[in-house]
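Appendix B. Worked example

We walk through a single record from start to finish. Start with the input: the chain for non-specific serine/threonine protein kinase, Streptomyces shaanxiensis, length 149.
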Amino acid sequence: MLGADADPPWMATQYFDAPTLSERVRKNGASDGDVVWRLGRGLTEALRDIHRAGLVHRDLKPSNVLLTEDGPRVIDFNVARVLSAEPLTRTGKVLGTASFMAPEQLSMPRDVGAAADVFALGGVLTYAATGWGPFDATGSIFAVAPPTP
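Next comes the structure step. The output line below is what the pipeline stores for this chain.
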């Protein structure tokens, strides 16, 4: 259920008693190729639906992916944004988890759109397949982020 036009905007989601992707990888290690492909298909469908609803998640990461029996579920829309609304992000304020953020979330946080979620999807799938986030070797995305304008 979604009240994107309400004041304040709200969203209600179903509760799932399921582990997160980060819990599963910590417990069992990296996933095999078939599992990663199924995860990718499920998360792609979830992002398609999120974006069709006019939202951008802005914080897709392994701890925000529940692994339910019928496929992955994206949770935690605390920093989500309604795409058609004026961004509320203030200058100098970055929202999201640095190790899964698209570079534009650092350089242009007010303009972040659906493409940032797709970038994060790549990082989540990298984590599922290897047990490492895409920027773990550098210590932080800030080491490879473009300079802010």
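Two observations about the output. The mean pLDDT is 82. The radius of gyration is 15 Å.
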